[in-house]
Amino acid sequence: MEDRHSGRPESGSIVSELEGTLLDDVDPFPYFMLLAFETSGLIRFAALLFLWPVLRLLQSIGMAGLSLQLTVFVAVAGVRESEMEAVARAVLPKFFMDDVNMAAWSVFSSFKSKVVVTSWPRVMVERFVKDHLHADDVVGRELEISRFGYATGFFKRAEKDSPLCKLRAIFKDDKPDAGFGRRTSARSFLSFCKEQYHLPMAACDLKQSQELSRPRPVVFHDGRLVARPTPLTALLIVLWMPLGVVVAFVRITIGLIIPIWWIPASPYDVANYVQRILGATLGFECTNFTRKDKYRVLAGNDGTVNFKSTTPWMARVKEVM
């Protein structure tokens, strides 16, 4: 493996497992909690939290597949596909990036052709894996979508949807040079690869490879939660929310009672201060992004309109301004 960290150009192909390899955590629960909260609000968030003991019990008795299916059903049943894609684009990447295993990334990034395999819904991870981990393809499980565009909460069941069948379709008659996954993983894709890599990697390999490249950073984050909602964190959020609303109301009331000339700041500063207090009280995160910043990140430019492609009178307005 040393030749892949020697600085030579990338070559070869690799298939890597996402959970437990490229990501440290194998538990999808926090990410489904984020998906439930951002798409449906506090009610679905709390429902999934209260289901957590049942999910853990199923995992402990060897029924991890049923646990995942139940998690998916509660988190996404009745949610529009477009809303899930929006959360996967603007919210989940920040939390995925915080969980990236740099040792695994160093090996994964040293190959030219990269494919990621996951047991989670493909729609949740595809944007992050392709944009930030530079993968070429993602092999994940597909959700059933109704003809009206809503998720049913179930996975599609078809022989061709298995990871091995999808990998064979991607690589045709060839085989990937390397398979990267957990030693305890029973995934069939590892046997499909010519070589197999496992964590942990040697410390010297990690130090040398980290100097070559790092994942593309997450610039735009539009989520409302600061910390990843583990079961304990989610429980604190649910318990604090009613009290937080009362505290926010009291603070706003005091702010309205105090004459504005008592406050040595402009109305804009006061409005921004109130928003920060509300966000901090409710446990949300302030991105400090202006509207132009968001447009710039989403549109891939500086957030301005190209006046050369507009009507002449608009160009004249620009000159006057």
**How many discrete structural domains?**
2
> What's the number of helices?
15
Corresponding CATH superfamily of the largest domain = HAD superfamily/HAD-like
Number of strands: 7
SSE arrangement, N to C: EHHHHHHHEHEEEHEHEHHHHH
Largest sheet: 5 strands, parallel
Second rung of CATH, namely the architecture of the largest domain? 3-Layer(aba) Sandwich
Mean pLDDT: 78
The shape is globular
> What portion of the residues fall into strands of 2 or more residues?
5-15%
User: CATH top level of the largest domain?
Assistant: Alpha Beta
Task: Give the strand order of the largest sheet, numbering strands 1, 2, ... along the chain.
Answer: 3-2-1-6-7
**Alpha-beta content class:** alpha/beta
Briefly note the CATH topology name of the largest domain: Rossmann fold
Terminal Cα span: 60 Å
- Which radius of gyration do the C-alpha atoms yield? 24 Å
List the uncertain runs.
Answer: 1-9, 206-211, 307-321
In short:
This protein is of the alpha/beta class.
Structure overview:
The protein is of the alpha/beta class and 321 residues long. It has 2 domains: 13-198, 3-Layer(aba) Sandwich (Rossmann fold), CATH 3.40.50.1000; 231-287, no CATH class. It has 15 helices and 7 strands. It has helices at residues 29-40, 42-50, 52-60, 64-76, 81-90, 92-98, 102-108, 122-131, 163-171, 189-192, 203-210, 231-257, 267-282, 291-299, 312-320, and strands spanning 13-17, 113-121, 137-141, 143-145, 151-155, 178-180, 195-197. α10 (189-192) links the parallel β6 and β7 (195-197). α1 (29-40) crosses α5 (81-90), α2 (42-50) runs antiparallel to α12 (231-257) and α7 crosses α11 (203-210). The longest helix has 27 residues, at 231-257. The radius of gyration is 24 Å and the shape is globular. The termini are far apart. 27% of the residues are buried. Keywords: Membrane, Transferase, Transmembrane, Transmembrane helix.
